[in-house]
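Narrative of accomplishments. A recurring question from our advisory board has been how the design workflow behaves on a single, concrete structure rather than in aggregate. To address it, we present the structure tokens for one chain from the evaluation set, followed by the sequence designed for it. No filtering or post-editing was applied between the two.
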């Protein structure tokens, strides 16, 4: 029982891991023994995070491979370079996402709509397709998609983002059904508002932050490390019997 969260010998790719939830998740996975691949659009930002992890956990714990989630070839390169460096991929954390539009769905342009769906759903599909064959062959693997509570309810300002995150729930359910016989688990995390750069507009203004906090049963928004623990859980032997699920971590907002 003492080894339920042990990830020694495992290799994890974490997208969008140069900051926020992705960074905290990569740091937590490394702290539990995993080798981690830091990936986001900018190589220098990835290098900084990998260097910090290596300084804390030993050289070779982390490597940095930049990749845009909008570029299928770049994601294929990410997977190939990970295998070249570490030999295999045991854990995939699909954390990167985008939301180029804020406002009523009446005003969203077609290219913005497509970008949100492509970056938040199709890119996850591409990555899962790239890593799943080896997981299925080994009869072992864990895939975690970072979705959002925006996919659980309507919203007047980030509607298409919510649609994409709802689709991620179904992406996880479908892959869980398909890959379950091969012991590859696929789950989602649905965070509420978390103090990240991605959500800066929602927490940086003091008055807006006060109003937001008042609507949360815990009376505050989340911190990235408070989501990272769930990533470790879903990637570890602790969650060996959990697949196709959406774990809500929102301070009680959706209750």
């Amino acid at each position: 029982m003492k080894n339920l969260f042990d990830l020694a010998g495992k290799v994890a790719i974490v997208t969008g891991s140069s900051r926020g939830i992705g960074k905290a998740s990569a740091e937590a996975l490394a702290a539990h023994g995993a080798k981690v691949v830091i990936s986001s659009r900018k190589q220098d930002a990835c290098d900084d995070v990998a260097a910090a992890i290596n300084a804390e956990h030993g050289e070779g714990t982390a490597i940095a491979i930049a990749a845009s989630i909008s570029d299928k070839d770049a994601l294929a390169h990410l997977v190939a370079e990970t295998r070249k460096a570490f030999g295999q991929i045991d854990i995939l954390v699909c954390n990167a996402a985008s939301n180029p539009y804020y406002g009523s769905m009446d005003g969203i342009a077609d290219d913005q709509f497509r970008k949100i769906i492509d970056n938040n759903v199709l890119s996850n599909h591409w990555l899962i397709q790239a890593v799943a064959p080896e997981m299925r062959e080994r009869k072992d693997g864990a895939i975690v998609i970072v979705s959002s509570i925006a996919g659980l309810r309507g919203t007047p300002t980030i509607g298409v983002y919510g649609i994409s995150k709802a689709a991620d729930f179904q992406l996880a359910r479908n892959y869980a059904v398909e890959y379950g016989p091969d012991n590859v688990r696929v789950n989602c995390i649905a965070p509420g508002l978390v103090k990240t750069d991605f959500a800066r507009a929602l927490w940086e203004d003091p008055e807006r932050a006060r109003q937001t906090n008042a609507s949360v049963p815990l009376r505050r928004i989340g911190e990235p490390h408070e989501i990272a623990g769930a990533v470790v859980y879903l990637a570890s032997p602790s969650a060996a019997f959990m697949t196709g699920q959406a774990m809500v971590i929102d301070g009680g907002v959706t209750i």
